[in-house]
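G., the chain you wanted modeled:
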Amino acid sequence: MLKKYRYDGDKKFDIKKVPTDETSLVKSKEEALEKMDKNFKKINELQAKLYADKKEGVIFLFQAMDAAGKDGTIAAVLTCLSPHGLHESAFKAPSSVEQAHDFLWRIEKQVPMKGEIAIFNRSQYEEVLVYRVKKLWETQANAKRIDVDKIMDYRYEDLKNYEKYLWHNNIRTVKIFLNVSREEQAKRFLARIEEPEKNWKFSASDYSERQYWDAYQEAFEDAINKTSTEYAPWYVVPADHKWYLRYVVSEIVLATLKDMDPQYPVVTKERLQEFAQYKTELEEELGKSKK
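Predicted structure as tokens:
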């Protein structure tokens, strides 16, 4: 069902040919909400097993243009998850300290432990999106041996290698691109201006980024094509309809956890014998207290 949205290296992503407003997996918004509610219950059950199993961790990574719906989608997903073994990390522009380190330094600190789920609101992919569009290497210091004309190729290579490294160390990376149209982004910016309760969401800097729309579209297309792998796939989700976007993301999260197949640890015979002894002692204690 999700194959049409999944990119794992077996097909090319052409951002101009992928619709941002289709809703083909359901017949109506009501059906999507009903299915999403069922998905959330299953996700919650699987997360409990994942936390108990502690054999594998997973990162759900979200990238998008401004106003595509990252925050709302992440909030919707988080509502069904237990805070145990869960954390969200929002990656803004790197600080001067972060810029002084390798570009994955700040990411590594947020990688989940086995049994945990991490939600990345933006991610290491800012280093092949904003970094590329704004040509930030031109204002940053590099060693003489670094060929600045190959920096982007180095970044794509490093991202793939890092995700393989995580995969080899029991951590999955699932990358989700919320694909919103320029027209829909404009409508959402207008809503933030015109509706008082949304004024706080509007940012002049977000609006100014619209001048780079085409450059960002090219950057997203290249990033997805050059870093899509079986072990760390991309999902390109239509984002013009928020209700559909959230439903599809719930399907992605559910499918990932099902594939991980976490199980509650099996209790050994020796441990069961200990339980029996504890049970006897506790029952005796309760019996005495009643007297």
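The chain is about 45% helix and 10% strand.

Shout if anything looks off.
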